[in-house]
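Entry: Protein HGH1 homolog
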Amino acid sequence: MPTELEEASLDLLSLRYDKLVGFIGHESPQIRLLAVENLVPYSTSQPSIFKVNDLEPVHELKILVADHPKIAEHALTILINLSGDADVLKDLATDDKFLDLLFILLTRKEEPHANLLAMLLANLAKWDGLKDILQRKQDAPEGLGSDDRVVNQLMDLFVKGAEGAYNKNADYDYLSYFFADLAKHAEVRQYFFERQDYDNVIPLTKIRVFTEHKSVVRRKGVASTIKNVAFDMPSHPALLAEDDINILPYLLLPLAGNESYDEDDMLAMVPDLQLLPPDKQRDPDPTILQTHVETLTILTTTRPGRELMREIRVYPLIRETHMRVDNEDLREACDRLVQVLARDEAPDEESEPVSRITEIEEDDEDERIVEV
């Protein structure tokens, strides 16, 4: 004979999906679990049911993020999918208490849903006001080695926590998308160039190594972050200098395959490209390659940038990429860069027309929304 709870569960499942949302905040954990578990598919197919009564279901879901692990998992999945809606995005991204909860949960060493939290934050970064993270502080989690700034904690999570090194349940790859969208704001770009007091390290130098990571999500997000940071033209000297950030090897290496070059060209290339193994393969994702080529084009905005790229023989590498990767968008990006590098310089010319850089910025593909 079914128990009272089992009978209630059967009654719940007999309801129409648009009525299930009324049970998200039920006092019984079993009923809450049943409701959110069965509502996950409708977060993509019928998202409007979560917007009734001034987003009341969304408000309930925000509470469930800190509920029992299985309930929290489904609640987070639903919120990730719903955050592509402008009204839901605004509600989530402007709720300071909810953001505080997300940041606390994400930085916990044993948090089972850290990757889902990172996905949700990646979507919330579409909200311009999230750049205020630069001012947010919370107690530094033990074992992370960070300070009390939330942005530094997330940066250290991304770097030190890769592949389960901090939290066995998480790799934090989707934080790269979070950083990429935040880097569209000038004040956040400055953060990436500022040496931090607690570890005396420039944040951009922490993430540059991941342009050749095994995770395509991490590579793609880091590539977009570097590209957006490169729009800060006054920082180009630091980006290009070998004794400073030295970003060029990290942009060029993913573009390199196992091709051979003329000896003069090879000896002039950056050292990282001179001793490549015979099985070296360029990044298999053409969108990542395109992002790196566009970043190189942004760095040709100043004459010193153009002259440096000619000196280290960027052109032969771009030529081979153009020839060997069958992707029209990438080839167009290669053509734009080659046109800049191949042209003659006027004696008093200092910079590339702003329209060229604006074109790249408008073509940015960072408008991705993560769905689960």
